[in-house]
Design a protein that fits this description.
This is TonB-dependent receptor-like beta-barrel domain-containing protein. By secondary structure, this protein is mainly β. The protein has a single domain, classed as TonB-dependent receptor, beta-barrel domain (Maltoporin, Chain A, Beta Barrel). It has four helices and 35 strands.
Length: about 650
């Protein structure tokens, strides 16, 4: 057993029982409406991007509410919607609807976000009847169209504050490239060269309603949303003459519906009872067609998927108490059914999971400069796979978290955290899938355990606003039951549990104040390093699959009350995936982007963005082996892709 994991639980209990108590944590920075007015922002995402060294994080929240979707709270609660990413939700919250913003670094009173060091709580303001709007025009290649339009209305009716939003999207993406096929990997000359063209269109509409009522001793919030999205993806390959042109067409439709509620009751003794619920339903239809020259298209892959989720979370706590105690339980039920036609062969799969997770959390201050917080959860889950639930997997795992913070001085803070976590299983791994771009079919797994890991992390935050700020976070993980592609009995690959791995990492954010050179300006640098060691039975020690070793982003921006502008450079990256008979490598070259944002007239904001200023270049290399990677290299495919610059113009305001 991992010695760190075995020591976590007794350490957590000892600290809970014997630590002296002082005051609760307060926000490190609070921005009221007067302070927010100094930011030139269209929406909440703009606002967070202007906070030096703050990193917006989005976790794995496939099922349930215990794994918070991000390190952002809205009105003190985790956003209930799962239909959109946190970036999309923040982009839909206009700056005019924000009353204040509180930033926590190191320690915070939100037990549901205990895995995060940085947390932001956005408080919205109650208003009369208002209508905010946003429209975006986009231009790339031959597409010059309206790509997004949104209306957000706030009104008060019968003691309820309602926020309703309607959004329409029409996004396009295009790239072109040259695909070289090497039948003999030792030769420098390609045996065949094809021209590839990729085009994707996303069209859809969304309706969302949030209703909030202030009760005599608490609050009640209701959420509802409906979303319909159509995806059309086209690949076209043009070989050398006299071979005919060929390609694929992927047509996918997604429909999502959500209902949620959050009820909070405060007692006379300042304890709070909170009940949160969410119900989701998702329907999707995918059809993949292959065509050649003038012949009719042939459908080779079809899949219809139906997903459901119901989750309830009950918590009882006291955020005003010095210990900030919280106790509760969460229960969820999820099911995904998929009916697939793969080259005419019918395949059916079904996955269900019933999960319960009681938890206990507390946070306290040992001394004026020391803070400790901890959380203990017990995850119990039963997962059944197969159309008749032939495979059953049960697990019961303790998930302790312990965080120790020390304020070196007013400008510097250290936070040490130790935790044991269990990654949620992606139900899609139990289903057959197909990739049109790389002609790759993956089988669904019959039985799969969730990957779990024990993590140690040290975070050092330093802030001298007049000079520079930085955040450094080295981490180390002991991983077990990791997921890797492995060969199945029918010759196709599938994700399976592959043993243990050691995982290393470093996250760093830097912000340098350059106001002495140019007023209200700064240089920003973000660097991430990842490495891992896994004993592969086919090729020996190697990193785990889907790993990007280095990511470096350098930017310069100037933020004034009415004018903001900036440039950003994404330096080259490399990602590698290991299949049983293939090593896939994706390389991205340097990309440049720029933006300018200004206020035009009274309440009208304009933002212009140029992405891939220098024509982004990607290279995809498929090293293919005859049977598996233990054998010599058999052939190779190299795709050099170019993405044209993309220009967008966004207007927003209030009617």
């Amino acid at each position: 057993m991992n010695p760190i994991k075995s020591a976590l639980l007794p350490s957590l209990l000892m600290c809970t029982l014997f630590t002296p108590v002082y005051a609760q944590q307060q926000a490190d920075k609070v921005f009221d409406q007067a302070a927010l007015a100094q930011f030139n922002a269209q929406h909440a995402l703009d606002l967070l991007n202007q906070l030096p060294t703050f990193v917006l994080s989005e976790g794995n929240n496939e099922r349930g509410l215990s794994g918070a979707s991000s390190n952002v709270l809205i009105d003190g609660t985790v956003p209930l919607s799962k239909s959109d990413s946190i970036e999309t939700l923040l982009r839909q919250l206009p700056i005019s609807q924000i009353a204040s913003l509180a930033l926590y670094t190191g320690q915070h009173p939100f037990s549901q976000l205990s895995e995060y060091t940085q947390v932001v709580n956005i408080t919205t303001q109650d208003q009369g009847a208002t209508i905010d709007w946003r429209a975006r025009l986009q231009s790339q290649h031959s597409y010059h169209e309206l790509s997004e339009a949104m209306l957000s209305m706030q009104t008060r009716l019968a003691q309820w504050q309602h926020t309703m939003s309607v959004k329409w999207v029409n996004n396009h993406a295009y790239s072109s490239g040259e695909l070289a096929l090497f039948s003999d990997p030792q030769q420098q000359q390609a045996s065949d060269v094809q021209q590839e063209h990729f085009a994707e269109r996303q069209q859809g509409a969304q309706f969302a309603l949030i209703s909030r009522k202030q009760l005599e001793h608490g609050t009640l919030q209701l959420n509802a949303s409906a979303q319909h999205t159509d995806w059309l993806t086209r690949y076209r390959w043009t070989p050398a003459v006299p071979e005919p042109m060929n390609g694929t067409i992927d047509d996918e439709t997604e429909k999502e519906y959500e209902l949620g509620f959050d009820w909070l009751k405060e007692t006379d003794s300042e304890w709070q009872l909170q009940l949160t619920g969410l119900a989701r339903r998702e329907l999707s239809d995918l059809s993949i067609q292959e065509w050649q020259s003038l012949e009719p298209a042939l459908t080779t892959f079809e899949q219809r998927e139906h997903a459901r989720e119901q989750v309830l979370r009950l918590a009882y706590g006291n955020p005003t108490h010095a210990l900030q105690p919280s106790i509760g339980i969460e229960g969820s039920y999820n099911s995904v059914t998929a009916n697939t036609q793969d080259d005419g062969d019918p395949l059916s799969s079904k996955v269900t999971e019933t999960r319960f997770e009681p938890f206990l959390a507390a946070s306290w201050q040992i001394a004026p400069q020391w803070q400790v917080s901890g959380k203990l959860a017990l995850e119990q889950a039963t997962l059944k796979s197969g159309i008749h639930a032939e495979q059953t997997l049960k697990h019961r795992l303790l998930k302790p978290q312990l965080k120790l913070g020390y304020d070196l001085n007013e400008a510097s803070q250290l936070t040490f955290s130790a935790q044991h976590r269990v990654e949620q299983l992606d139900f899609g791994l139990f289903q057959t899938s197909q990739s049109s771009g790389f002609v790759r079919t993956q089988n669904g797994s019959e039985q799969l355990k969730p990957m779990q890991y024990t993590e140690l992390m040290l975070t050092w935050q330093y802030a001298r606003a007049d000079l520079f700020e930085f955040t450094l976070s080295p981490l180390y993980q002991w991983q077990q039951d990791i997921h890797e592609y492995q060969l199945q009995a029918n010759g196709n690959g599938a994700i399976a549990n592959a043993g243990r791995a050691r995982y290393f990492g470093l996250d760093s954010e830097w912000s340098f104040n350059t106001s002495r050179l140019l007023s209200a300006s700064r240089i920003e640098l973000s660097y991430t390093w990842r490495d891992a060691r896994y004993e592969d039975p086919l090729s020996g020690t190697r990193p785990i699959t889907d790993l990007t070793p280095h990511e470096l982003i350098i930017g310069f921006r100037r933020d004034q009350t009415r004018l903001s502008w900036g440039v950003e450079a994404f330096l080259p990256t490399r990602l590698r995936e290991y299949f049983h008979d293939e090593v896939f490598t994706e390389r991205a070259s340097t990309e440049l982007s720029a933006f300018v944002q200004t206020q035009v007239g009274q309440g009208l904001s304009l933002r212009a963005e140029m992405n891939t200023l220098n024509k982004a270049k990607y290279q995809y290399v498929r090293a293919l082996y005859a049977s598996d990677r233990s054998q010599p290299l058999d052939s190779k495919e190299v795709l050099d892709e170019n993405i044209q610059p993309q220009f967008s113009l966004t207007l927003s305001g209030r009617l």
